[in-house]
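Quick start: what a row looks like.
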Amino acid sequence: MIPVVLSGGSGSRLWPLSRAHYPKQFIPLASEQTMLQETLGRLQGLRAEALSPLVICNEQHRFMVAEQLREMDVVAQNILLEPVGRNTAPAVALAALAAAPDDILLVLPADHVIENITAFHSAIELACSEAEKGALVTFGVVPTSAQTGYGYIQAASAEASGLTAHSIQQFVEKPDLATAQAYVDSGDYYWNSGMFAFKAGRYLEELERYQPEMLSACRAAFDGSSVDLDFTRLDEAAFSACPDDSIDYAVMEKTDSAVVIPLDAGWSDIGSWSALWDISEKDEQGNTCKGDVLAVDTHDSYLHTNGRLLATVGIKDLVVVETDDAVLVADKSRVQDVKTVVNQLQAQGRSERESHRKVYRPWGMYDSIAANSRYQTKRIVVNPGARLSLQKHYHRAEHWVVVQGTGLVTRGDEEVVLSVNESVYIPIGMTHRLENPGVIPLEIIEVQTGDYLGEDDIVRFDDQYGRVEEK
């Protein structure tokens, strides 16, 4: 059994904490671990091979995936990099092509919460047994309430007691509230969890049957792939030509081999701030408070701050989330509409949709402290032993001041060692590199000046992280 972890989502409904370049699966939302790490951690206790997953993510997130696996001492069988997003059906096809035909793929989104691990493992073992027989298994969450944010699966018969696989009557789209309540009252509908189990070969057979064009594109992308460090890069042109579709639409709704296994394990996909409030610990007034929060006469609210003091007075049923560069205030019953804010940010070309003020890189991170059209100031932290690429800029000069640690600077043909309170100037067009030869993090203050300060004004000549082709 090979866990296939899908880590390509953007988590836009959890903005401003979740951003396109740093989405919710890489953030510790429900515990001290990130959601990706929780997904991997709950596989402990299953078959031994389950501890070596196959992860599918996009190229921008590759180093975050690798680092979070390293923190858990997890060695992935493969980390497949999607050059463009094409939904879940092609992503799982790539995993099936990377596996042996008889391997059972346990497909798990990276952003779910499951509280009852014992029940989860029992459902997985039954799913593997059904998959061995050739079934394509999906997990249907036993609903606890009428929810309009989930799709539903109707079992052909849900009368059997205990943990049993049921044939599927139909998949249905997200309903209105009255329809959802009728589904829950009937007892034979389940929330569609987006988790699956099947043999790799069986999935490819059904994909060939119903979506041959998709499978052909995935084969071409996989056959044209190349290995880069810990990652497998797919052929971009071939994968870009692949149709965009979900597993449900492409295969599960069409195949006659699908079964659903009920899952009653405290499941949530944390698809909104209200869903996160539902599963979080609350104080006596029903508030979930994260960070430096002072709540006065405040009830049934989700309050989150990343740094500054957040004070509330006389509010109820609100979500208030503060980050370095944005604040969200929303009625708890309207949090599904947060995606509308994200869409407007995208239409206006604003950076708050894409990134936080703090941006993580494989060598460390930087925090944009201040900026206007002619200058930008950053706090840069370089991990011990790490180094930036050898690069130059056409439009900006840089001035670096070391405030912690020791920096080794390549500046044209010379190398300079800088200690605390020492600085160096990098003129426009000069080749340069910064690295940390020490055992503690290197921290510098960088002042950029020039007529263009975008991150795409970088020409890389050498890079240990495989980014030389980026411009």
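That is the whole record. The mean pLDDT is 93. The longest helix spans residues 117-132.
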